[in-house]
Amino acid sequence: MPAASNEQPTMRPPFVAKNGVVSSGHGLASAAGAEILRQGGNAFDAGVATAMCLSILMPDYAGFVGVAPFIGYSAREKSVLCYSGVGSAPARSNIHFFRSRGLEVVPRVSIYSQLIPASVDTWTAVLDRLGTMSFARVCAAARELAHDGFPAHRQMIKIITQKQDFIRNFPYNASIFFQTGGIPGLGEIFVQRDAAHSIDLMAQAERKAIQAGKSRSQALEAVRDVFYRGEIARAIAKLHQDESGLMDYEDLASFRGCWEDPLSTEY
Predict the structure, then answer these.
(1) CA gap 255, 120 in Å, rounded
(2) What's 24-85 look like in SS3?
(3) Whole-prediction pTM value?
(4) Which of 47, 195, 196, 258 is the least crowded, having the fewest Cβ atoms under 10 Å away?
């Protein structure tokens, strides 16, 4: 190659997209988002589908009950929008609680450091205000990856290996991350049937709401209610109770994020 050329040698041709592109931390998540675009969904539908898949494909890093801050530009509203999907601490999380247990700082990796899950709240809020598709359609790829599994990848294996001692302190967590008896091997199929069941419960709530004549917004609120006020909320609260955690049912039932004006500057 001539020294004066700015081109770099590569065996991979560049991607060229006519109508849209999706980029994320895992190829299967990006493919799910791109499929939503091909089906006629908009960028926000695709973004939620991609985020849901990432929560399944990277449960060690950005799990299904994690946080999901959102920022994006709405051409319809001609503005940059922001949703505070970062969760909040449980009501009982205060300095007196931690000091009563001999702690001067909140443990970085502990059941005590878990925020109220914000992902489902963000996903439904974004779909309601900016999306066009149903929750059931957008969540389909994530549900399939959770139920049928996906090949374990290096990043997940690395983080599970680093956190294995902590994971083993919680029997349920261990049953998921060590489902084959130990740290998953590269390419080994990793399934999350309980996560698939949770997605099914939310999709069923949406379907029942629509069948009952509810609006799209009301159906998405029904999806949200299953997580924060229904069976899933009760399961999360019970786990914290069994493991001497901080979160209770009321923490989940009273939680809701909000739309905010993003900080900005001129330069």
Answers:
(1) 11
(2) CCCHHHHHHHHHHHHCCCCHHHHHHHHHHHHHHHCCCCCCCCCCCCEEEEECCCCEEEEECC
(3) 0.90
(4) 258
Give the strand pairing for 189-190 and 150-151.
antiparallel
Report how far residue 174's alpha carbon sits from residue 170's, in angstroms, rounded to the nearest whole number. Answer: 6
Task: For residue 175, count other CB atoms closer than 10 A to its CB.
Answer: 11
- pLDDT above 50 (res 199): yes
DSSP label at residue 259: E
Q: What would the pLDDT profile of 53-107 be if each residue is shown by its tens digit?
A: 999 999 987 788 888 999 999 999 999 999 999 989 999 998 998 898 888 888 8
pLDDT for 208-256, tens place per residue? 999 999 999 999 999 999 999 999 999 999 999 998 889 999 999 999 9
Closest C-alpha among 83, 51, 81 to residue 69: 83
Q: Output the pLDDT for position 5.
A: 55
196 SS3 class? helix
| Burial of 97 (C-beta count, 10 Å sphere; 0-12/13-18/19+) | middle
**CA 46, CA 139: separation in Å to the nearest integer?**
10
- Identify the sign of the CA torsion 189, 203, 73, 264: negative
Contacts of 188 (CB under 8 A, 6+ apart): 151, 152, 180
